[in-house]
Amino acid sequence: MKIESISVEVIQYESKLSRDSAGHAHAGQPSSAQIAMLTVMAEDGAKGYAFAPRELIRPYIVEQYFKKAAIGKPVHARELIWQDLWLRQRGSGAQLTDRAMAILDQALWDLAGRQLGVPVYQMLGGARTKVKAYASTMCGDETKGGLSTPEEYAQFAETLVGQGYQGIKLHTWMPPVSFAPSVEMDIRACEAVREAVGPNIALMLDGYHWYNRTDALKIGRALSRLDFAWFEEPMPEDSMESYRWLTQQVDVPVIGPETIGGKHQSRASWVQHQACDILRAGVANGGGITPCIKAAHLAEAFGMDCEIHGNGAPNLAVVGAITNCQWYERGLLHPHMDYDEAPGYLNVIVDEMDSEGFVHLPDRPGLGESINFDYIEANTLERY
Ligand code: MG
Q: Which fold has domain 3-117+373-383?
């Protein structure tokens, strides 16, 4: 059985997210947005799907890389196809990104699961059927009643605990917010949230990503005092040495790397050089499910947790497959946004949460997305 075709549909839908000039998502008014759906089809007509920003899987990427690496290959040869893409990546002149590789890899896993009638998290290891979710807030803003002050973070944290969350991760203020970045405001927000939720809720901070060592140390010492569960990406991850330095200075566990390239290979270096206490990997910016699960197993071999970055079906599948990950990242959340409302192209969100703060792994075959194909048919702008 071989892979026969790869195609894309660009879909129009209504989104309530807005993006600031630095690219951060905020709660906004309904507006028209676009997303692309990649479809990989096998000779028997079985299909796998993955959603992506349309620019990520533009026609050039699909024709030059996806089709050349996958069409005619055995339908379950995910590792072979991933390795083929990886070899093509160097010569692509940075056109073939880790994120694009991840989209094809996701669709191949989804295809396999749908064809075999098995959820992907079970194919990957099936370690559990539910996982605690932490509430991952949007970045701070200047919206009154939103996330504009430490006190508003504290009020929102109380709301989230009321919904069942056992953990909360703050994303604090970043430019273009007029007063950001601010070490003092970050610390005040963390203090206010700890004060509001008490000692038994796990708290994490993911703040401004370009602090220098001195500022990161100041915040890290505050988080140690406030008994935070981890400290995420306060400095550019290009300098592993800075993280090695910070990890040696503070008691709060330092987690990383999230955004650097290099997939599981770069993460092996961070583990070897003790640049983090908890490893971080994700499907989207780690090159796919295939390398993400390798990173998680690498961490396990060193007695480390590997916390999976980001929400959505592929990340949830990896979390469900391993035991050395304590949380699923549910978000991004904001007081003015209803996370549980599915976008038009899905029938339901994949990560509904129960009143005790657990997300249950979907038992649908494949990655578990419940796709609204009628909506997609009616709202397709472009096919290639
Ligand atoms: Mg992060």
A: Enolase-like; domain 1 (3.30.390)
